[in-house]
Each structure stands twice: as C-alpha cells, then as structure tokens.
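Lecture 7, part B: from sequences to assemblies.

Below are the input chains for today's worked example.
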Amino acid sequence: MKVKDVKVHVLKVPLPEPIQFSWEPLPHQDYTFSLIELEGENGVKGYSAIELGSTYKAFINTYVRPLLINLQIDLELIPDRFLQIGSWLIQRTGALEVAIWDLIAKSNQLPLYKMLGGKRKKVKVYASTGRLMDVKETIDLINDYYSKGIDIVKIRFRRNSIKDDLALLREIRKTFGDSIRVAVDANQAWTFTPPYWDRMTALKVAKELEQYDVEWLEEPLYREDIEGYRWLRERSNIKISGGELEYDLSRFKAFVDSKALDIVQADAVYSNGIRECRVIASLAESHNLEFLPHAWDPGMGWVANLHLSASLPESLTKYIETPLDPLWWFNDVLFAITKNKIIVEDGYAILPEDAGLGLEVSDEAIKKYEVE
Ligand SMILES: [Mg+2]
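Predicted structure of the full complex, as structure tokens:
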C-alpha cells in the first residue's frame, strides 16, 4: 500500500490547574502535543501522537513528508535507513512509524498487538507519578491507586535534599508495608534546575534504596554516561533502569554490551518505533534483562507502548508505565482527543480489541484543540 498523505496537527489541551513535573523547570498551563495522521491509498487513516509540538510538525513537513508520499509501506513498513532521517535533526521517527502500524493493522482489521503475534489481553499497570509531592499528598495518591487494584508505583526523586526523598520512601513503607511495590525515577538527575547528581550521589542513593526493597532505580545518571551506569550497577544491589530518551538500536546495544542496565526502557514513539523496540526487547531478553517501555505520551503514543508490551512475554515485560498523576491526567489529558479510552481494571490495562491501536480520533476534539 502507498502513502497518500501525512499531516501533523499541533494540539493544545487546557489543564484544570497548572501542573509541574519533576523534570521540567516551569509548570504546564496546558498540554501541547502533535497528532500524526497518515492516510493510505485505501483511504484508511493511521494515527500516532508525541509530546513534541511545532518542531515536530516542521520536521515532518520539511524532511519526511516529501519522502513519504507514494512510499510503499506494507511489506517492510518503512526502510530502516529512512528512519535514520530523524537523526539529522535530533528528532525521532518512532511516532511516525507507529502511525504506519496503526494504518496497516486497521487495513488488516486486526488489533495491533495481535498483528504482532501477541496473546496478552491485559498488561499489569504500574502507576507513574510525575510531581515532587509532599508525604501526605503522595500517600493519599497511593491510597487511590491501591483502591483501584494498583500495587506498584513509581515516585520521583531529586528534591533539594536526598534526606527528603528518603523520608518519603520511609513513610510509604511505614504506611503500606509490603503491600505496595515502589520504584524510583531520578530522570537522569537532569533538568534545567539543580540538584544535579554525580556518580557518588547516585551510588549513595542506590545504597539507601536497598534497605527499602525498591524495585528499580531509573535514570540515576545523565544518559551519556554509560560507563557511569555500569560503575553504579557493579556497586549496588538494586536494579538500574534507563533508555527512555534513546533512539537507534546502536545506543541500546552500547548500554547492554557495557552491562550498564538491568531494565531497558525504550519507548515506541521516542525510539525509531515498534519494530526497533521489538529488536531491543529481544536484545534485553537474550541478556536476561527486563524490558519495560517508557510510556508517557498522549493517546496513541501511550497505547503504542501498551500494544508493544502485550506482544512480548510477561516474563520480559511485566508492566506498562501508566501516567496517573494527577489522577485525571490519564483520562482527561492523554485521551482528550479520542472518542474511547483505555480501561484500567483491577490494576491491569485492558487491550482494545478494535483494529489498529484501537482508538477512535474525535474530529471535533481536533478542531477544538488545534492551534496549528
Ligand atoms: Mg523515566
């Protein structure tokens, strides 16, 4: 099948209150992202979405669109070399590749995970928080998760003092005992504001986390410091995870070859797409590592990672990251532009059985939120 057209809609969804995530310097007043719409010559449309806004639209329109129109996509999807176009502009083509999968799976009238050979009807959710909340707010939120059957949560670290980060963890253990599993994310100790962690700080935190039986420590160092990840992993008894902002198989291979990770966290829309992620998952499996995709982007971006997860063995990919902070973020923001939403029931995300990614885009919502 040939590609007839590709469009990018930049959408801005207003938020009921400003939200500041731990990795960002300023609060969000709204949520801006790109919706990719890919039309096949059969008239079927595939969609995808990624958090990047105007720059992504400019990238697709300028560099990708002219190459994509009339390209034959059904057999090999898009050639891997074509995906490398992303590296010119430090943009990723994964989101575009996901729209192609959606189009092809819809044309074959199959849910994407089934087209990928997946059998899992549901994937266990881990609740991903995004804010640096105080103790009470965090405990209240975890109580909400627990009442919905979710018993694994990821909290953010990198408050001004590590003592404050650890005090939160201590309170979670005191309140919930072993009934809640906890992972910790430091977001590369990276942002526009301090504190920044060096290797010794990351090691100090990792050693502290051992006593709280934490599931994993995510991105404790800047992503370029592969040697630092290996150094840290050798010295601590806690699983180290990373890779959410990487793209290109060679980068993941470098992490795995360096014995730098226990858990590999490629994201279908941030990497070069689902095909690349499935190769990365096999790379992880062949080294007895885990593969837990990062999943934070709107609608189709998040759901792409759900389908990817459902196509992989449970022993390799136990959970799907699910942005649930604030609680309304998942339904009201992630699925602001779709007619249907993904059901989370008894701690599991249920795979949609409609064709493709299983989400129906609302043209009305696009009109309402489109800014360019
Ligand atoms: Mg992360």
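Note for the exam: The pocket of magnesium ion is lined by residues 185, 187, 218-219, 244, 294 (CB under 6 Å). Keep this in mind when comparing with the next example.
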